[in-house]
Amino acid sequence: MQVVHDVEALKHRSGASWMRLFDERYRQNTWPYGSGVWGKREWVMPQMPDDCIVSMYEGGTNLFWADRYGQKLGLSELWVKLCGNSHSGSFKDLGMTVLVSVVRMAIREGLKVKAIACASTGDTSASLAAYGAAAGLPVVVLLPRGKISTAQLVQPLAHGALVLGLDTDFDGCMEIVQRLAEEGMVYLANSMNPLRLEGQKTVAMEIVQQFDWQVPDWVILPSGNLGNASALYAGFKMLRELGVIARFPRLVVAQAENANPLYRAWTAGKRDVAPIQAKPTLATAIQIGNPVSAPRAIQALEAMNGLVEQASEEELCEAAARADRTGMYTCPHTAVGLAVLEKLVQRKVIQASDRVVCVSTAAGLKFTEFKVRYHDRQIEGVSGQQANPAVYLPADFGQVVDAIAKRFN
């Protein structure tokens, strides 16, 4: 299913008029326009009353000019959309503000439901639990036991959600939560619910707005369940239909080599994505073998002249380390996108003069274990070429001087 907007009704404003309105609202403190999602409410969920909106002022995140990292790759314009600079630390907040607000409105109008629920690899559960707590709504999250970071596990616990750690992977959790929804026990909050995509599509709108309403040449998106590819396309499509932009950027969907069903299908020339058994990957949030939004992602790729590429565990680790050395603090999923970017630049698919945006999906601080293991060279099969372990010394002035001289000689 998908949400359909009356685009003809929205054409009562010109493209220039929409741009002025959205610029006037951007990051305001007038409720609810401080939110990057609700500042574009007419394009998202126009019938939503103010008092039903559940918002943490999500969106409005930094479009970071990755100057030093881009220069190392030979690019003149590399930007990273830091969607992890959000309330729960990931882009999931953009979709969850819409979904939870709609559920709140539906309950007011008579919906009977025990809880809102999701299967998650960590970030969705954190976001749903936060927004559910803010709305005073019960939340159930199903997580693959032992396969998410400590920070991601703690978030829904802290927000009071019922956290069920299951002895399976994400796809197994997804199968169970879908059945719970089908039997009417819970309301489903995963991205197969099109309400989520309505919020997430504002990433496309924000990128264009932050470029003074200009379109980049490329958008690179790390993805597992593939809802975000569809969301980006929906955002760019509305922008074009309503006269704000005249063309699409090219879309790149980046997958981990260990969880790459879309890559396998796309490179084989197929448009049906066959499920696979995803192998363990450091990019745990995209360790998904049976992506529910695969048909939507295929549609987005075809419309945006897109392509799909993958990154190995070694490649994503080294890309993360290179980016971090230039001032970023990259989560492993964003590192998949950066590793794919490096490949496409090396192959000259992406040109030095192109304006490129890589979408960063989550805050690096949620993945401290990943960083520690890399710099301690404890990740099996990863060489750790740029590892920077701490140096431990006695409290001796001379040894400290020697350590500084050794490093900066």
Write out key terms for the chains shown.
single chain; 409 residues; alpha/beta; Rossmann fold; four-stranded parallel sheet; 16 helices
Computed Rg: 21 Å
Question: Which CATH top level class of the domain at 63-89 and 197-375 fits?
Answer: Alpha Beta
Order of helices and strands: HHEHEHEHEHEHEHHEHEHHEHHEHH
Q: How much of the sequence is in beta strands?
A: 5-15%
Tell me, briefly, the overall form. Answer: globular
Which class do the helix and strand fractions yield?
alpha/beta
CATH topological fold name of the domain at 63-89 and 197-375: Rossmann fold
Largest sheet: 6 strands, mixed
Unreliable stretches, pLDDT < 50, 5 or more residues?
none
Q: What is the percent of helical residues?
A: 40-55%
Number of strands: 10
Number of helices: 16
What CATH architecture of the domain at 63-89 and 197-375 do you see?
3-Layer(aba) Sandwich
**Could you tell me the mean pLDDT?**
95
Give the strand order of the largest sheet, numbering strands 1, 2, ... along the chain: 1-2-10-7-8-9
Instruction: Give the N-terminus to C-terminus distance in angstroms.
Output: 62 Å
Note down, in words, how this protein is organized.
This protein has helices at 7-10, 15-25, 67-73, 92-108, 123-135, 150-158, 170-182, 194-200, 202-210, 227-241, 261-267, 294-303, 313-324, 332-346, 368-375, 397-408, and strands at 63-65, 77-82, 115-119, 139-144, 162-166, 186-188, 218-222, 250-256, 307-311, 355-360. By secondary structure, the protein is of the alpha/beta class. The protein has a domain at 63-89 and 197-375: Rossmann fold (3-Layer(aba) Sandwich). The strands form 2 sheets. Strands 1-2-10-7-8-9 form a 6-stranded mixed sheet, with helices on both faces. Helix 13 (313-324) crosses helix 14 (332-346). It is globular, with a radius of gyration of 21 Å. It starts with 6 loop residues before the first helix and ends with a helix. The model has no long low-confidence stretch (mean pLDDT 95).
